[in-house]
Amino acid sequence: MRETLSKEDAVAVVKTIELVGVSSESWRDAAVQALAEAAKTLRGIEGMDVLETSAVVDGSDITEYHTRVRIKFRIER
User: Fold this and answer.
1) Which CATH architecture has domain 13-74?
2) What is the spatial distance between Cα 29 and Cα 15, in angstroms, rounded to a whole number?
3) Are 59 and 28 in contact, with CB atoms under 8 Å apart?
4) Domain map (residue ranges) of the chain
5) Alpha-carbon gap, residue 59 to 70, rounded angstroms
6) Which residues make beta-bridge pairs with 5?
7) Dihedral (CA of 54, 55, 61, 64) sign
8) Is the pLDDT score of 1 beyond 60?
9) Residue 77: predicted pLDDT
């Protein structure tokens, strides 16, 4: 038997945004920074994909870690 869903349950829209987190510690920390910044203004965050990592270097030292992420959040109706 097929369950009947209400209109609200049947239709969901998930929006994505891309951000670059920056850290002097690690790529993981850069991703955490990006998520923390997104959470300040977005409700309903459901997931995050790490798209790319890069770094700023000075000689043989990494001075900044950059992590580009895609944040997924549900649109509220």
Assistant:
1) 2-Layer Sandwich (3.30)
2) 24
3) no
4) 13-74
5) 30
6) none
7) negative
8) no
9) 74
